[in-house]
């Protein structure tokens, strides 16, 4: 992934891409400088969001979500932007009649909110948000998918979220580096 800051740089990147493969598409996305990334991990049933959690990437947008540091609750996102995120989440779940887990990623710059993508699966952050808010979203998603009835009054809905007030959950990507240790065995 590269950021092109001008037309000539864009042409060079596209030429490099065609050298790698002329058969596969190139995805071009507008890079929005200074934007933050926000993710919603949620569970819906027949298009209605039953449970959710909203996290914020610590790094500015552009870092892959698997490598990003996430915080819950959000720290720098305005209430107005969060309401737009919730509204978009609600509309996406309804439009696609989602039943089960899903993750939606957003770009937020000030009060402007843009959808990056929606994945119809449990994301890597589902265990993190489940532990942080104290609701097992995988269990909720599983029960939705097998058709069980849920007590929705105890779930973190868009209207009544569970937002920690006396702690902040932080998910940090850990990179393992292999260290080679040479062991010498001596026979006497």
UniProtKB/TrEMBL annotation:
It comes from Bagarius yarrelli. One of its GO terms (molecular function) is carbamoyl-phosphate synthase (ammonia) activity. One of its GO terms (biological process) is L-arginine biosynthetic process. Residues 26-146 form the ATP-grasp domain. GO terms for cellular component: cytoplasm. Belongs to the CarB family. Signal peptide: none annotated. SUPFAM superfamilies: Glutathione synthetase ATP-binding domain-like. It comes from the Eukaryota. This is Carbamoyl-phosphate synthase [ammonia], mitochondrial. It catalyses: hydrogencarbonate + L-glutamine + 2 ATP + H2O = carbamoyl phosphate + L-glutamate + 2 ADP + phosphate + 2 H(+); hydrogencarbonate + NH4(+) + 2 ATP = carbamoyl phosphate + 2 ADP + phosphate + 2 H(+). Keywords: Amino-acid biosynthesis, Arginine biosynthesis, ATP-binding, Ligase, Manganese, Metal-binding, Nucleotide-binding, Repeat. Pathway: Amino-acid biosynthesis; L-arginine biosynthesis; carbamoyl phosphate from bicarbonate: step 1/1. The keyword Plastid does not apply.
